[in-house]
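Researcher: I'd like a candidate sequence for this fold, 92 residues long. If you have to choose between options at a position, lean toward the conservative one.
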């Protein structure tokens, strides 16, 4: 039973990492946010990215950065969490 839960957690974290990667790629193209796939990716990633983005905003003394690094930070944090829980280098 524990093995199934570990595998399910690993799959969920991997899906979130893929969604963050897809969101980064989507941001390079003029794709409408009304697209159902784009909306799904934003719904998956925004709850994780918004707090990190706000933290970066506060660290920069209320100034926005030209590049949003919140996706990169969350992506690598999830990779670190996966490597701690499951052992080994499981970044992507």
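Model: Candidate sequence:
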């Amino acid at each position: 039973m524990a093995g199934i839960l570990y595998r399910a957690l690993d799959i969920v974290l991997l899906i979130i990492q893929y969604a963050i990667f897809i969101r980064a790629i989507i941001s390079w193209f003029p794709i409408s946010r009304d697209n159902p796939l784009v909306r799904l990716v934003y719904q998956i990633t925004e709850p994780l990215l918004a707090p990190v983005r706000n933290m970066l905003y506060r660290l920069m003394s209320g100034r926005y950065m030209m590049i949003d690094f919140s996706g990169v930070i969350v992506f690598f944090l999830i990779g670190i969490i996966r490597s701690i829980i499951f052992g080994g280098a499981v970044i992507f």
